Amino acid sequence: EGIIIFMVAPTYEESEPELDSEHLLSSSSPEPESRDQQDNFPVSESQRKTDTSKKFVKCEICGKTFEYRSKLTRHMRVHTGEKPHSCKSTQVKSFIQRIQLQRHMRIHTKNQHVDSGSTRNAELKKRRRHKNRTDKSRSETDTSKKSVSCDTCGKTFQCKSNLTRHMRVHTSEKPHSCSTCGKRFIWKSGLETHVRIHTGEKPYFCITCGKRFNKKSGFESHVRIHTGEKPYFCSTCGKRFGKKSGLETHLRIHTGEKAYSCNVCRKEFRDLSTMKSHRRIHTGEKPYICSSCGERFSWKSGLNFHLRIHLSEKPHSCSTCGKRFSLMINLKTHMRIHTGEKLHSEDTVTKTHEDSH
């Protein structure tokens, strides 16, 4: 029995899956991860019947069952995010299973000369078997044995099935639908992730703070809060980010790109949150509510200013006489008393109720 590699597919609402040679090689006949695994081959049917003490072990998080506790232990890494096998060359890359590390190490060793004849022969045999499999796959899916390309964007694929799936990006075809709410998805993996909203399933949990997640991407992003890891960096100014979306938004500062526009007035914005905030001008939406008096505000900053009336907070003080104000604009107006600057009609501001007392 080979190793069962648990891989959680990303949400393909944003990006589509692509098959590569490394994936094809790793998906068949994986090598045993350790000596313990080699000893874990299942017993015969007759032995199973006589061995009444053998019981299946179950994952308490997702309910998946395993014949051996060692496999349950490895499976738990999917939920905890533990990656005990690290690359000694980079000191950064880590993997859940040893075989994943072994495949990764080929990146470092593929250009190095291998002295051992037996190791070299074994590697050649693996490559030959892989070539035969890929050649057979190509002959079945593409009689011309040539890569196929998308007529819309020019992206190339090794087989027509991958091109067919890719075309959904351009056609907006969404063949997978949720039986609960009817929402449709381009990829099956996207549907599987969405269903967790209805079931409440959150298979990923942070071992540091206990917070749970229904998406692997959300879990991995959260873990970086504790580790301080910022794998995404700007090649222009060097600023680093914990989330890819943060980097993408930042890059627009350098490129000047404004990817989001208001559908009412067509004003453009660099990030989605600013655009949504702007739209409240048109919709009149006021999502921020004062818990003391019930007054509503379109923006959080407006609510924060308002709360100072109830809290009697006056953070801005005059450096000359010490008088305090809740708003900076009122302090600036007051300072003219000391500077002798004349107050112009257009500069006149209405003082707040608290500042008039």
Automatic annotation (TrEMBL):
<feature type="region of interest" description="Disordered">
    <location>
        <begin position="107"/>
        <end position="149"/>
    </location>
</feature>
<dbReference type="InterPro" id="IPR013087">
    <property type="entry name" value="Znf_C2H2_type"/>
</dbReference>
<keyword id="KW-0863">Zinc-finger</keyword>
<keyword id="KW-0479">Metal-binding</keyword>
<keyword id="KW-0805">Transcription regulation</keyword>
<keyword id="KW-0539">Nucleus</keyword>
<feature type="compositionally biased region" description="Basic and acidic residues">
    <location>
        <begin position="134"/>
        <end position="145"/>
    </location>
</feature>
<keyword id="KW-0804">Transcription</keyword>
<dbReference type="GO" id="GO:0045596">
    <property type="term" value="P:negative regulation of cell differentiation"/>
</dbReference>
<dbReference type="Pfam" id="PF00096">
    <property type="entry name" value="zf-C2H2"/>
</dbReference>
<feature type="domain" description="C2H2-type">
    <location>
        <begin position="176"/>
        <end position="203"/>
    </location>
</feature>
<feature type="domain" description="C2H2-type">
    <location>
        <begin position="85"/>
        <end position="113"/>
    </location>
</feature>
<feature type="domain" description="C2H2-type">
    <location>
        <begin position="148"/>
        <end position="175"/>
    </location>
</feature>
<feature type="domain" description="C2H2-type">
    <location>
        <begin position="204"/>
        <end position="231"/>
    </location>
</feature>
<dbReference type="GO" id="GO:0000981">
    <property type="term" value="F:DNA-binding transcription factor activity, RNA polymerase II-specific"/>
</dbReference>
<keyword id="KW-0862">Zinc</keyword>
<keyword id="KW-0677">Repeat</keyword>
<dbReference type="GO" id="GO:0005634">
    <property type="term" value="C:nucleus"/>
</dbReference>
<feature type="domain" description="C2H2-type">
    <location>
        <begin position="57"/>
        <end position="84"/>
    </location>
</feature>
<dbReference type="InterPro" id="IPR036236">
    <property type="entry name" value="Znf_C2H2_sf"/>
</dbReference>
<dbReference type="GO" id="GO:0008270">
    <property type="term" value="F:zinc ion binding"/>
</dbReference>
<feature type="domain" description="C2H2-type">
    <location>
        <begin position="232"/>
        <end position="259"/>
    </location>
</feature>
<feature type="domain" description="C2H2-type">
    <location>
        <begin position="288"/>
        <end position="315"/>
    </location>
</feature>
<protein>
    <recommendedName>
        <fullName>C2H2-type domain-containing protein</fullName>
    </recommendedName>
</protein>
<feature type="region of interest" description="Disordered">
    <location>
        <begin position="13"/>
        <end position="49"/>
    </location>
</feature>
<comment type="similarity">
    <text>Belongs to the krueppel C2H2-type zinc-finger protein family.</text>
</comment>
<feature type="domain" description="C2H2-type">
    <location>
        <begin position="260"/>
        <end position="287"/>
    </location>
</feature>
<keyword id="KW-0238">DNA-binding</keyword>
<dbReference type="GO" id="GO:0000977">
    <property type="term" value="F:RNA polymerase II transcription regulatory region sequence-specific DNA binding"/>
</dbReference>
<feature type="domain" description="C2H2-type">
    <location>
        <begin position="316"/>
        <end position="343"/>
    </location>
</feature>
